[in-house]
Amino acid sequence: MKNNILFSGLILVLLISFSCKEEAQNLNDEEIVENLNGYWKIDQVERDEFNDIREYKFSTYAEYIEVDSNLEGFRIKLQPQLDSTFKKSSNPENLIIKRENDSLRMYYETPLDEWKETLISLNKDEFSVENERGFVYTYKRFESLKKELDAHE
Known about the structure:
- The protein contains 3 helices and 10 strands, in the order ααββββββββββα.
- The chain is an alpha+beta fold.
- The protein has an 8-stranded antiparallel β-barrel.
- A hairpin with a 3-residue loop joins strand 9 (126-131) and strand 10.
């Protein structure tokens, strides 16, 4: 009896925690634009097939994503500076988001390459994508390099 109560409680906690992430395919275009635009930092990378998770406690890079109401825009990697400015560390990657097969796909293009990722979850503070090799990248909202450094002292 006691085990059944503990098991039921565990299932309830898991359901609540999974429901807190907004599944990307359920968002309308306006919610995608509102939640995705801005500065992001990589939080972790997960490789499901190897049951391997790598957490990034601190990163010297941030990414800026900007999409318009047509879900077209760009992503660029930046190096945050202590004075809250950024140095450009790469060229912008063209970005188009499309709804396909009950999923949201993020198509990237540079002069040298093209690739896609599936947007898994998205809210104002966090999003995750899965690439074609099965890696799941989770991003958290980036505020400032100073806050990042202070958090890790």
